[in-house]
Specification:
heterodimer; A: alpha/beta; Rossmann fold; 2 domains; 4-stranded antiparallel sheet; 24% strand; B: mainly alpha; 12 helices; globular; binds adenosine-5'-triphosphate; binds magnesium ion
Chain lengths: 258, 332
């Protein structure tokens, strides 16, 4: 068992509110880790800490054994942590292709003078990035929509594009924040198969935040349960399902657990 | 490779032809001095417009300090041609003066760019306003460049050919930038700065590149402006000058090379034809800005461009691009 990502006593305060408290968890290479918990449990905050959008109040984050807390989000992304957002954050005015290229650009080496003067080196890199990004889009059957504005896509296609854009970073770890939000059960089942395919195809490690219990149970190798920023349970899907503390946390709020 | 050269041959020869025309036209006597003055003004304004568009259009900020960068370029170049090397041969001196004007302004773009790391939107707009005031009051208090009276007797070195040349350079460089990874990063900042960072865009580098490039060309335009009018003073570069450039950007179209050309042409002709109005002129441009902001904030060509202004390697529109709806969902 080798840890790809590890947090040690990770804490984040918002004023008096402790959104994440003393959280120590690890993500193994190649697994799909489900993260569940009632609304406001701190799941999204955890992602924001892992991707550097917020600095932790205290505690450590290790990615491939190296501390990443305090690095800029772009640097963390370049090291191989990609994510999607709970409320889709595409570059709406830009085309589908441009959305993917922006993520792919982090793999391109091209200095500002090269770019400003459009040197042969810069032009070669441009062609490369177009081809690679198109290839990725074709793979996800979004190729025919490449020149459409991202904001004009259907909801489902936008969700999918956000995942493709994250994959264009060539990540080792993919963080998905409620990818099935707003989907009906049959769409969620399709997404389940889709994510399983992505996980294998790109040899990824995935952390999945999701409220659709069926989906989390079906996909996850392990599940961690958060409530009020602390870990209240964790383990194999079946163990978590029957855990009284988990049921209580959910029944206390919305009772969504099947 | 051969193919690439062939593709570039037509636009290159057209640009060269333009340069030859710009160089020969004044000598033929076909255009009078006034028309020549207007044409040079269009070129200078186009440089100002496309460079401000980089920050206000592509990056989506609202800088009102462009006249400040222009002032720095104008003064730096005029110091060179008037004070330091008044006897140097113009053919060498002028290109150097314009370049140094651009570099001076570009350097001043660095601190403003750094301030944009922390603040954006309204607050950044206020910072650029403060920058403009610092530059203007600074110049008013420097006796070496004539204080509030400014500098006189600047040689008239801005020919139609030079104005045309620098205009082409500005559009070429900014086009290169906009269609590069930095340009896409700049647009990503406009769309969603947090998502941009999360997708690996170093937003600090992108902002610095945008501000330095933008202010460099404002400085170039300032240098050309000084050597066209032969006279500059601090109040040539006040908030009204910035407003004029803002109108060009928001009239022609944000984040658009073609729009920058259109906006510069339209506003130059407008200000020229408004000359008879005297000081009432000062009311018209700000009023246009208000109307634009209310009814068409992205301008005529907002976020679009003519195909011939785009680089050749940008992906050709696909033939089957017509709305292919969601029938075939990805690998399920
Ligand atoms: N930027 C912020 N400033 C202040 N409080 C915040 C901020 N971000 C999150 N919080 C608070 O932290 C707590 C955890 O929020 P978070 O968004 O992480 O929950 P979540 O588990 O993702 O919930 P949901 O299931 O509704 O998405 C909430 O009480 C929230 O109000
Ligand atoms: Mg959340």
């Amino acid at each position: 068992m080798s840890g790809l990502l590890e947090t040690r006593r990770l804490t984040r305060q918002f004023g008096g509110l402790r959104a994440i408290g003393d959280l120590s968890l690890s993500v193994n290479r190649g697994e799909i880790l489900g993260v569940i918990g009632p609304n406001g449990a701190g799941k999204t905050t955890l992602f924001n800490l892992l991707t550097g959008i917020y600095p932790p109040s205290s505690g450590e984050i290790l990615f491939e054994g190296l501390p990443i807390a305090g690095l800029r989000p772009s640097e963390i992304a370049r090291r191989g942590v990609a994510r999607t957002f709970q409320n889709i954050r595409l570059f709406r005015q830009l085309t589908v292709l441009e959305n993917v290229r922006i993520a792919y650009d982090s793999q391109i080496v091209c200095s500002p003078p090269d770019a400003l003067l459009s040197t042969p080196h810069a032009r070669l890199r441009e062609k490369e990035s177009i081809n690679a990004s198109m290839e990725l889009l074709e793979l996800f059957e979004l190729g025919s929509l490449a020149e459409n504005r991202a904001g004009d896509l259907s909801y489902g296609a936008q969700r999918r594009l956000e995942i493709v854009r994250a994959l264009a970073l060539d990540p080792k770890l993919l963080l998905l924040d409620e990818p099935a939000a707003g989907m009906n059960p049959s769409e969620a089942m399709q997404l389940t198969d889709f994510l399983r395919w992505v996980h294998g195809k790109f040899s990824l490690t995935i952390v999945l935040i999701e409220h659709h219990m069926q989906m989390v149970m079906a996909l996850s190798d392990r599940i961690e349960v958060l409530d009020f920023g602390v870990r209240i349970a964790g383990g194999k899907p079946d163990e978590v399902k029957g855990n009284p503390r988990v049921i209580e946390a959910y029944l206390g709020t919305e009772g969504e657990l099947p | 490779m051969m193919d690439g050269i062939k593709k570039h041959l037509i636009p290159l020869s057209l640009l060269l032809l333009g340069l030859v025309v710009a160089a020969v036209l004044p000598a033929t006597g076909l255009v009078n001095d006034y028309l020549q003055f207007v044409l040079i003004s269009v070129a200078i304004n186009a440089i100002l417009c496309v460079s401000l568009n980089l920050v206000n259009g592509w990056m989506g900020e609202f800088s009102v300090g462009h006249a400040g960068f222009m002032a720095l370029g104008a003064y730096a170049s005029a110091i060179l041609t008037v004070k330091l090397f008044p006897t140097a041969p113009a053919a060498l001196l002028f290109p150097a003066a314009v370049l140094i004007g651009g570099c001076t302004a570009g350097l001043a773009g660095i601190p403003v760019g750094i301030l944009s790391f922390k603040t954006r939107g309204d607050y950044l707009a206020i910072i650029t306003l403060a920058f403009l005031m610092i530059v203007k009051s600074g110049l008013e208090n420097i006796p070496y460049t004539g204080g509030p009276r400014g500098m006189l007797g600047i040689p008239r070195l801005t020919t139609l050919a030079w104005a045309y040349f620098w205009c082409v350079v500005a559009f070429w460089v900014i086009r290169n930038l906009v269609y590069s990874k930095y340009g896409r990063g700049i647009a990503a900042i406009r769309e969603d700065e947090i998502a941009a960072e999360a997708m690996g865009v170093n937003t600090r580098t992108a902002k610095l590149v945008a501000f330095v490039t933008s202010s460099f060309f404002a400085g170039v335009a300032g240098a050309l402006f000084a050597h066209q009018l032969q006279f500059i003073n601090p109040s040539s570069f006040d908030i009204l000058k910035s407003t004029e450039i803002l109108v060009m950007v928001y009239l022609g179209g944000v984040a658009s090379l073609g729009g920058s050309l259109l906006g510069a042409g339209a506003v130059t002709i407008l200000t020229q034809s408004l000359q008879p109005l005297g000081t009432w002129r000062m009311v018209v441009l700000p009023a246009i800005l208000v109307v634009l902001m209310l009814y068409r904030p992205s301008g005529i060509m907002g976020y679009r461009d003519w195909a011939w202004l785009k680089p050749f390697f940008s992906p050709a529109p696909r033939s089957n691009k017509k709305k292919e709806t969601e029938k075939r969902e990805g690998p399920q």
